[in-house]
């Protein structure tokens, strides 16, 4: 463990079932200095029931080994490829619950147990990109071999984010371990929040996920790691949302999925069976009634901003995007551009590449204001490591707070300091305001600050 890294991640991947797992590993490696990769496990899924492919993980790590020294020119902390090779393991090459039970341990399931038992105060995030049976086996063995108190302690450290249910063990896990922190969009894939990373939103510019954009900004002319990024098969990077919310960008709050971030926004409730698209495509995984509250689909509404040719340098769209997927889609241009910039880092010198701005606040990120009074928000102290000119944008994120009605910015929203009038409330309410800072480098990079304002009567 590199002590400065606050996020520990353990991906389970059905790599080779779909090119998107390889795509997600390439992106993850570009953030391996911010996310402590604890293991990389090749697993099965409903789409690949009898095959695990650890060799494909090693092949991508071989490409990473050739660019890791250059990445270190831009930010410290990128682990050596040899250390990551040593973390690769595999689950059993069997499907779902047939791989769970006495005597069905694997290198992958044992690795999860060791990771949980380590002296480490950080949560362990298990990102499930395929089937969950390797995790299920680890939990089965923990329950069978530990005291109830030890089970509770280990479960409390675990965070699970699965890309739908890609085998029949997900629902078993949720039934058997009702206190386990679990993010999932159960049911049909068409109903899933994670689709916001690759959905084409009608009436908006979706060029950042086009095949041409990917070829120009990721695959071609970006060294061996870019060349290892495969063409899209079914949908680009459907697994990536599992770790997007672990990236340190000033917006994400991993322990609060209801606050929203690059990995989407989720709320804690028990969804109705009819609301989870039970007859939609699952690859054949049975859909059952959810037994308890889970972190699952939430709805955002957003009119995205774009550049304005004259006058105020941004304008809000007249068209509104709304839905589960919008909670990821609303940030997609920002995180795609960030991906492209980091891919530049694999081949360019520090002076040739762009680096993200460093937002600051002229006050605390927690404020209390009186109902019906005015207050101001300030980005004083914001800097950029490359000396680039900066653009500011303030916005209220109503769905993240308790006060669901949008609160307008009282002045031009693109000033570094803005004025706002607190609405009249009858009881304490919270409102989230997001500062978005974008530099004018190439490509233009964005970072954020979040201010949570409590409005009292």
In short:
The chain contains twelve helices and 19 strands. The chain has 457 residues and is of the alpha/beta class. Helix 1 runs parallel beside helix 2 and helix 4 packs across helix 5.
Structure, described:
The protein folds into 2 domains: 7-297, Alpha-Beta Complex (Inosine-uridine Nucleoside N-ribohydrolase, Chain A); 356-457, Sandwich (Immunoglobulin-like). It is 25% helix and 20% strand. The chain is built from 12 helices and 19 strands. The chain has helices spanning 19-29, 54-71, 81-85, 107-117, 133-145, 148-157, 169-176, 211-219, 223-227, 241-244, 326-329, 332-345, and strands at 7-13, 35-37, 40-42, 88-90, 124-128, 158-162, 181-183, 266-269, 294-297, 300-302, 305-307, 314-316, 321-323, 366-370, 374-378, 390-396, 417-421, 429-439, 446-456. Strands 1, 2, 3, 4, 5, 6 and 7 form a 7-stranded parallel beta sheet that branches. It has a 4-stranded mixed beta sheet with strand order 14-19-18-16. A two-stranded antiparallel sheet has the order 8-9. It starts with 6 loop residues before the first strand and ends with a strand.
Shape: globular
| CATH architectural group of the largest domain | Alpha-Beta Complex
Largest sheet at a glance? Answer: 7 strands, parallel
* Whole-number count of domains: 2
Structural class call reads alpha/beta
What is the class of the largest domain in the CATH system?
Alpha Beta
Number of β-strand runs: 19
Number of helical segments with 4 or more residues: 12
Helix content: 10-25%
Rg, alpha carbons: 22 Å
Average predicted confidence as pLDDT: 96
Our estimate of the beta-strand percent is: 15-25%
CATH topology grouping of the largest domain: Inosine-uridine Nucleoside N-ribohydrolase, Chain A
The low-pLDDT segments are none
By CATH, the superfamily of the largest domain comes out as Ribonucleoside hydrolase-like
Q: What is the terminal separation in angstroms? A: 47 Å
């Amino acid at each position: 463990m590199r002590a400065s890294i606050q996020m520990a991640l353990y991906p389970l991947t059905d790599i080779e079932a779909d090119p998107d797992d390889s795509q997600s590993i390439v992106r993850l490696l570009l953030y391996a200095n911010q996310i402590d990769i604890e293991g990389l496990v090749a697993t099965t899924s409903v789409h690949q029931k009898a095959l695990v492919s650890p060799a494909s993980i090693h092949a991508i790590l071989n490409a990473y080994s050739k660019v890791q020294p250059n990445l270190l020119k831009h930010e410290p902390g990128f682990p050596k490829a040899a250390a990551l090779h040593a973390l690769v393991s595999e689950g059993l090459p069997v499907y779902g619950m047939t791989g769970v039970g006495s005597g069905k341990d694997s290198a992958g399931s044992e690795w999860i147990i060791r990771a949980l038992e380590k002296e480490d105060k950080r949560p362990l995030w298990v990102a499930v990109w395929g089937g969950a049976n390797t995790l299920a086996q680890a939990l089965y063995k923990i329950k069978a071999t530990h005291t109830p108190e030890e089970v509770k302690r280990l479960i409390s450290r675990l965070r699970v984010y699965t890309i739908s249910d890609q085998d029949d063990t997900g629902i078993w896990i949720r039934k058997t371990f009702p206190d386990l922190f679990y993010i999932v969009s159960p049911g049909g894939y068409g109903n899933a929040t994670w689709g916001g990373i690759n959905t084409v939103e009608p009436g908006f510019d979706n060029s950042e996920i086009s095949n041409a954009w990917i070829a120009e900004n990721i695959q071609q002319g970006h060294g061996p790691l870019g060349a290892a990024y495969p063409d899209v098969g079914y949908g680009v990077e459907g697994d990536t949302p599992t770790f997007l919310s672990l990236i340190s960008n000033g917006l994400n709050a991993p322990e609060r999925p209801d606050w929203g971030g690059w990995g989407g926004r989720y709320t804690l409730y028990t969804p109705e069976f009819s609301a989870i698209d039970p007859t939609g495509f699952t690859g054949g995984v049975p859909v059952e009634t959810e037994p308890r509250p889970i972190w699952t689909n939430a709805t955002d509404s957003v009119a995205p901003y774009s550049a304005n040719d004259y006058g105020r340098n941004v304008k809000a769209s007249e068209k509104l995007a709304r839905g589960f997927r919008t909670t990821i889609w609303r940030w997609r241009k920002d995180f795609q551009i960030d991906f492209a910039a980091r891919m530049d880092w694999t081949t360019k010198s520090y002076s040739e590449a762009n680096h993200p701005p460093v937002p600051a606040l002229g006050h605390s990120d927690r404020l209390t204001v009186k109902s019906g009074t005015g207050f101001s928000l300030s980005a004083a102290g914001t800097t950029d490591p490359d000396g680039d000119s900066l653009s500011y944008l303030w916005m209220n994120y109503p769905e993240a707070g308790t006060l669901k009605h949008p609160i307008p910015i009282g002045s031009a929203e693109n000033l570094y300091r803005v004025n706002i009038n607190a609405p009249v409330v009858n009881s304490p309410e919270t409102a989230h305001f997001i500062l978005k800072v974008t530099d004018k480098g190439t490509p233009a990079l964005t970072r954020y600050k979040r201010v949570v304002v409590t409005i009292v009567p």
